[in-house]
Amino acid sequence: MTLGATPGEAQSFDAIDAAVRDGIQKGIYPGAVVIIGRRDSLLYARGYGHYTWSPSSPVPLPDSAIWDIASITKIVSTTSVALRLVDQGKLDLEAPVRRYLPRFSGGPKNQVTVRMLLDHTSGLKSYVPFYQKARRSRARAINLLYAQPLVRVPGDSAEYSDLNALILGLVLEKVSGLPLDQLARREVFRPLGMTQTMYRPPASLRRRTVPSGMWRGRPVPGDLNDQNAVAMGGVAGHAGVFSTGMDLARYAAVWLRSGVGPDGEQWVRPETMRRFLVKGPRTGSRLLGWDTPEIDPAAEEPSVFGSLISEAGYGHTGFTGTEIWIDPVRDLFLVFLTNRAFDPRVRESAKELKFVRANLSDAVVRLVPHGCEQELVARC
Prior knowledge:
Elements: E1 2-3, H1 14-25, E2 31-37, E3 41-49, E4 67-68, H2 73-87, H3 97-100, H4 114-119, H5 131-134, H6 138-146, H7 162-176, H8 180-189, E5 198-199, E6 214-215, E7 218-219, H9 227-231, E8 241-243, H10 245-256, H11 270-275, E9 314-318, E10 322-327, E11 332-338, H12 349-367
Parallel strand pairs: 1-3
Antiparallel strand pairs: 2-3, 2-11, 4-8, 5-8, 6-7, 9-10, 10-11
Helix pairs in contact: 1-12, 2-7, 2-8
């Protein structure tokens, strides 16, 4: 992608800068990057603040700062690998999980399908801190994962769960015969030109890695914030990927191009991609892997997508303070990366970040109102 023409007057970026800097001033995160783009061009890319609260630490840059993207791993790794394997006819969305993982069986688990792992209707618990018993043993962590019972009827309702992506990661490894990190590199990162996206970044990259946590009062760049992912050896379906803002921008643009990769080749067929962008009758806001806006003006907290994104928009966030969304109606995407989980200076930093995300998202949509469909013009 190339840097495209500014979609409005120069001062129109002021609202974007103000929204991001507001988060720094309030102590929610010390640093951030923002990238705004279309299917074939970048509209804006900028870094803010510093890696840590120390003004002597580096300023994060969109193309070089490496971030622990947390649950966006579910999208750029697990969901995308599943997308590719479905497109290649190697994975069946409607197949029971036990077809691929015989240990995931018995009682209602027999009814859980691959699709249910992706749209979060499997009935698995939302979160289990199994790392406390796993003691950094991947085999023990997997045993604990298989032992988790269902808490809802499969397919009945959606509840976001890390366990879905963890099980899906094991499915993908079984289907392919490869570890998930190698599989993601082969099927997603390499073909999409995401050269700085990886699990378990080497020590040589720590100077460019924005810390997402503290250990004994010191920043720990390159160490995963998610302890369940640590228990899985740093490679898991729900978390563990590190990336740059520019790599995630390349990824978002492929979705706006209906699966056409940066080399002009079809990475995934458009019809396969569309299958992943359809809600089920009981999936709530969930697509396959992705989430969608639920805008309620009466809600106490805003949608992280803001109030102006189109109904066709979709995206995902990460615990460490990361976000990506894509709006095909406006041919627009936003990548917003922060290290909110690093030593926040404000209480309820996750809640406070929602307001920053909402304000930023609306500022981005206002920046390019001419991308709206006719019926959405009034909302822009």
